[in-house]
Specification:
Blueprint: H1 3-19, H2 26-33, E1 41-50, E2 56-65, E3 68-75, E4 80-84, E5 89-94, E6 97-102, H3 104-118, E7 127-133, E8 138-142, E9 147-151, H4 155-161, H5 169-216
Parallel strand pairs: 3-7, 4-8, 7-9
Antiparallel strand pairs: 1-2, 2-3, 4-5, 5-6
């Protein structure tokens, strides 16, 4: 058995998936947000940042702009959505099938807190929390005005409403690089974890092979 080749193949497959920046929603997200001026709005997907407890938090889509940072949570649910900003879970009714899903407002709060922890030297930044649903979804949600809940088709229009400058161009470039470095750091840590798991698995496979060879002697 070529154990090295086998484990190498597993490693390459796992790491390839880890490095993929896209997900099943990436295409339609990009189409909607592509209307924004790229010189004013920097669009970053799958951002990773650590909170004050050193726990990694994933942010679906982040827009770094001259007008602050927009933290966007895309919800791919169809049918009717019921929820309140203080509920632990929201309810989705799609063709009579009812299920629950985590409150996306809480998810955004965790993401914003992680960004504040990362960008602690920029206390003046305005963070805009946004939850975007598919256009045909019916929304029955009670939420405070500090979170914008909308359909995808209205997302760009709402973002453009904010015209008060909040971040200087030179600051925006530094912040962008810092966010990207943090996300890269996460990928490196994940890669090390996966490599360690593969190494342990390889040692276990070797022990099993040795045991089998001893029994057959």
């Amino acid at each position: 058995m070529d154990l090295t080749a086998k484990t190498k193949g597993v490693k390459e497959e796992v790491l390839a998936k880890l490095q993929e920046p896209k997900n099943i929603l990436q295409n339609w997200k990009s189409q909607e947000l592509g209307q924004l001026d790229g010189s004013l709005y920097y669009k970053i997907s799958n951002v990773m940042a650590k909170d004050h407890c050193e726990k990694w938090i994933k942010i679906d889509k982040l827009i770094l702009s001259d007008f602050g940072i927009y933290v966007i949570n895309f919800i791919r649910k169809k049918g009717i959505i019921y929820g309140c900003d203080e509920d632990y879970c929201w309810i989705n009714n799609h063709n009579g099938r009812v299920d629950e899903f985590p409150n996306p407002i809480y998810q955004n709060r965790r993401g914003i807190n992680a960004l504040k922890n990362l960008l602690i030297e920029y206390p003046h930044i305005h963070y805009h929390s946004m939850i975007a649903f598919l256009n045909k979804t019916e929304l029955y949600i009670e939420a405070k005005p500090n979170t914008e809940i909308c359909h995808v088709k209205n997302l760009v229009g709402i973002i453009r409403k904010t015209t008060e400058f909040n971040i200087a161009p030179e600051e925006k470039n530094r912040i962008y690089k810092k966010i990207r470095r943090q996300t890269t750091k996460y990928k490196i840590e994940r890669q090390k974890i996966i490599e360690a798991l593969i190494h342990r698995n390889r040692k276990r496979m070797l022990r099993e092979i040795i045991k089998k060879s001893i029994k057959t002697e």
